[in-house]
Every structure is written in C-alpha cells, then in structure tokens.
Specification:
- With about 120 residues, the chain is α/β, with parallel strands linked by helices.
- It has one domain: Response regulator (Rossmann fold, 3-Layer(aba) Sandwich), CATH 3.40.50.2300.
- The protein has five helices and six strands; from the N terminus they run βαβαβααβαββ.
- The chain has a six-stranded mixed sheet, with helices on both faces.
- A hairpin with a 5-residue loop joins strand 5 and strand 6.
Length: about 120
C-alpha cells in the first residue's frame, strides 16, 4: 500500500489553515499536520515529520515573518518538498519580495487559482 501524502499546514490565517487541514484529511485521507507559524516549531516538524507538502496560509504577515520561511530553501531546492502559499495579491507580493524560496506555488484567495513563482 502506498504511503499517504504528508501535508504541513501553517500560517497566520487560522480559518484557512483549519479548512485546508480538514479537507486534506476528509477528502483525501492525507496525513495532515497543523502548526503555528513559528520558526522553531516549523523547523522541528519539517525534520521530524518530513512532510511532502507545506501549505502556508497568509494573512498580512510582515517582511520579517515571511522571511522565516527561507529555512525551507534547501529542502525545496532538493525536490523533497513542495510549498504552496494561500495569499491575497498583496500578501503574494510581500512573500515574493522577502523570501528566497525559488519555487513556490501560489493559491489566490478566494478563488484558489494556481500561479507558479
């Protein structure tokens, strides 16, 4: 039997974190992990759980808050993990300007259309 996809969901937008987590589990049976958007918590979960996907649900983060996701750069670059960001147009601009992640998929709020960075 194939191993279930492991998804880490984090970010300041608690409503979207909750909705995505519930849908990933209920609709697909994915192993879903929620965590607060804190550098140490995310770091610990990334290396203990080794998720296939990280979904960041933004809500008016600052440049400093967004830059903490740079710690995912090496894992993303290796292809071991994919990052999706649920963001408004303004949040997307902040994320693109203040992170060094090279490959990120954007999901727009509320339409959830895909955009590749």
């Amino acid at each position: 039997m194939a191993e279930k996809l492991k998804v880490l969901v984090t970010g300041e937008n608690k409503r979207i974190v909750k909705d995505i987590s519930e849908h990933c589990l209920a609709d697909r049976g994915y192993n879903t992990i929620k965590c607060k958007p804190d550098r140490h918590t995310i770091f610990d979960i990334i290396y203990s759980e080794l998720p296939n996907i990280v979904i960041i649900c933004m809500r008016d983060e600052t440049a400093q808050e967004v830059s903490m996701y740079d710690m995912l750069s090496e894992v993303v670059r290796s292809g071991a993990m994919h990052v999706f960001v649920v963001a408004s147009d303004d949040d997307k601009k902040i994320f693109m300007k203040y992170t060094e992640l090279e490959k990120v998929y954007f999901l727009s709020r509320p339409g959830f259309s895909f955009h590749l960075l």
